[in-house]
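name: query_chain
kind: protein
chains: 1
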Amino acid sequence: QVQLVESGGGLVQTGGSLRLSCAASGRTLSNYNMIWYRQAPGKEREFVATITSSGSTYYADSVNGRFTISRDNAKSTVYLQRNSLKPEDTALYSCHHDPYWGQGTQVTVSS
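structure:
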């Protein structure tokens, strides 16, 4: 049984930074792609960033240059460093490793 557990969310002011973590249990992540998604209230879930098993990274245009995805295979953890946060970054952030999802961590950016 694979479990993904996100943490690191909270309330932050515009321009602030937060680092989210996604810890996996039941499987070593090193051979798998990991993806961060987010869902804002009243909106559909959207892609944020992904990191492949080889370490390549890809970002949504809306976060490119502000967010950084990384992984620590020894800890089976994927991170999402988010800088220069904006109110429109307010959402429930979830990590995904097909077909598994975490429960999400809420991030609220105050203006």
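note: Residues 13 and 110 are 5 Å apart (CA to CA).
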